[in-house]
Specification:
The protein is mainly α and 104 residues long. It contains three helices and no strands. The chain is elongated. The protein starts with a helix and ends with a helix. The chain has a domain at 48-103.
Length: 104
């Protein structure tokens, strides 16, 4: 009789233990997924915005070159200012730098 009770408790307890372990594993999975999602989302937002700035700068550089220097967009102006600040001795013309921006 005692052996039957022990077997019955074991049969009932085993699935309960498995369910608890599965719930803990599931909670760990979702915690990890939420953390990873936040990191990936942050990276995606940054990367996507950087790409937009590069594309806008290339558009401005293209307009500048196509108009023989008549059209100077704000992204190109900022890029030229940054490039000259990074290399104070730079002797390249604005057209040369616009071409460099387009070939990046």
């Amino acid at each position: 009789m005692r052996l039957k009770k022990l077997a019955l408790v074991s049969l009932i307890g085993l699935p309960l233990l498995a369910a608890t372990t599965a719930a803990n594993a599931d909670a760990r999975f979702w915690r990890h997924a939420a953390t990873l999602g936040a990191t990936s989302g942050s990276f995606y937002t940054t990367s996507r915005d950087d790409h937009k700035i590069v594309a806008a700068t290339q558009d401005d550089a293209s307009s500048y070159l196509a108009s023989n220097g008549q059209i100077r967009g704000p992204y190109l102006e900022a890029a030229l200012r940054d490039m000259r600040a990074a290399e104070p001795g730079l002797k390249a013309s604005d057209s040369d730098l616009a071409m460099r921006i387009l070939t990046q």
